[in-house]
Amino acid sequence: MAAAQGRFSDGADGVDSAEESSVPLPFRRAVDGLKKARLRPGIEIDPTRPPQRLAPHAYALEAAVVEGEDDLADGRLILLHDPSGHDAWHGTFRLVTLVRAELEPEMAADPLLPEVCWSWLTGALEARGLAYGEASGTVTMASSHYFGGLSERRPATQIEIRASWTPREGVGGVPDTSAHLSAWCELLCQIAGLPPVGPTDSGTGVVSLPQRRGPHHP
Fold it and tell me: Are 76 and 60 in contact (CB under 8 A)?
């Protein structure tokens, strides 16, 4: 299993950097939780530069679900922190994500697909007993049809989930970011078409679609 990696918004890596003296302790501990998370096989996760203007402190990871030479899905998870709190968040931390994958035709045709994809996120959080609030987001599908010299390719549909939620803070004002990252990776794997693993809860309302094992190739 891979351990998560990442960086602070000021470019500092590791708690020994002199520049981190100005980083609030709750945020440093939350980032440590992300770094120590143990993830299921098949997920490649790397640091990426976080946005600079969404919050005073930010930390970002990008990940892909890989099978052989294929990337089945990819995404980005950003941890934001405002020590003064944020009215829209109803807290001092916020998690923001983008995940996307290419779908096979039979999945793209399912009219319940947007609701199912959203249930994958909320179900993964609830299955781990994670308290969260102010969840919001969009599920978008975009289809591509090919013509002329590309007419032999079959139509392709990409699905994209953009979401954010406020993780409830625990001891010392620090959310369980390790568990939130694991839940997010479960979302990434499900949109990639891999079967769920780990904590399950039949009461979470998670709905399954036919599983797939990689993008369709013409």
Answer: yes
Per-residue model confidence as pLDDT tens digits over 132-187: 999 999 998 887 878 888 888 877 788 999 999 999 998 889 999 999 999 999 99
Other CB atoms within a 10 A radius of the CB of residue 60 amount to 21
Measured over the CA atoms of residue 43, residue 15, residue 77 and residue 136, the dihedral's sign is positive
Residue 89 structure tokens: 């968040």
Give me Rg for the CA atoms of the chain.
Answer: 18
CB-CB contact of 142 with 213 (8 Å): no
Residue 53 to residue 117: CA distance in whole angstroms: 29
In the block, which residue shows the tokens 């096979």?
A: 104
Whose CA is closest to 47, among 29, 32, 34, 60? 60
Residue 134 — left, alpha, or beta (φ > 0 → left; ψ -120 to 50 → alpha)?
A: left
- pTM, entire model: 0.80
Largest CA distance in the chain: 61
**Residues with Cβ < 8 Å from 151, sequence gap 6 or more?**
none
Q: Are strands 70-86 and 43-47 parallel, antiparallel or unpaired?
A: unpaired
DSSP alpha helix (H) spans, 20-103: 25-36
DSSP β-bridge partners for residue 163: 97, 137
